[in-house]
Structure prediction request, 299 residues.
Amino acid sequence: MPTLKDYNKKLVSLRNTRKMTKTMQMVSATKFQRALAAQARVRPYALALNSTLARAARAAGSETQNPLCTPHTPAYKALIIVLSSDRGLCGSFNHGIHRAVARWITEREDRYTDIDLICCSRKSAAFFRGRQSIRMQHDGASASPTMAGAMQLGDEAIQAFLKGDYDEVHLAYNEFINAVSRTPRIEILLPAAPPTGEQNPALTMENVQFGPAAEVAFEPAPVELFNLLIPQTIRFRIFSAMLETAAGEHGARMSAMDNATKNSDRLIETFTLLRNRVRQAGITRELAEIVTGAEALKG
Prediction:
C-alpha cells in the first residue's frame, strides 16, 4: 500500500505537470489567435486573385492553353505534398492526415506506378520513412508559414510537373474548421483546374466590389495575364494550406493541453483524497497505540 510520502511525491509531480500543460495551453491559445489573424489577412488577396484569374480566363476564351492546366494522359506518376506538424502533443492532428495519405496511396496502388512524397514536417518524414519514397523534406511549414516557403514548394512541384517527372501533384493537409475540429483533405494541385470563380462561396464574383457585370480592361492581354496568374495561384494554394495547418495544429494542441489540465486536476483531487485517508489512518493508529499504552500502564 502506498505510504503518505509516496502520495506527496505523486501530488508534487501532478502539480508540476498541471503547470506545464496549463502554460502550453495558454501559449497555444496565443499562437492560435495569431494563426486566425493571418488567415483573415490573406482572405482579401485570395478573393482578388481568384476573381482576376476567372475574369482573365473568360476573356481569353479558348486561348487559355497553359501547360500547367493540361492533364498528362495517362497519369502514371504522382507526387503528394504532405503538410503536418513538426511537434507532437496535439492529439490526433498528425496521425489523422498521415493515415489519410497512407489510405489514399493504398487505394490507388493499381492506378499509379510511382507515388512520391514531399514531407513538410519531421513528423510526416518519420511516419513515411521506410514506407514510401520521399522526394524532399521541408520542415517548419506549419510552425512558421511564409509565402517564401510556399513559393519554394510550389516551384518544386511546378518544375517536376513540367519536366514530366510526375503526371499529377496532390496536396494533403488538415482543413481547419474550428479549434477542436478539422478534416484531412487530399486535393489535386496539378494539373490546375480551370478557374470558375465559384469554387469557394467566399470567392464568388458577387463578392467583388465592382460586380460580376463590370467590364474590365486587361493589361497585359488576358492570355498573358492568365499564364502569369496560374503559377501564383498554385503557390498561394500551398500557402493557404500551410495557414490552415498552422491554425489546426495550435487549435488541436490547445484542446489537448486543456484536456490534460483537466485530467491533472481530477488526479490531484483523487490522490489528495487518498493521501488524506492514509494520513487519517496513521493518526487513528497512533492514537490507538497511545490509548493502548496508557491502559497497559494503568493495569
About this structure: DSSP finds five helices and five strands in the chain. The longest helix spans residues 222-298.
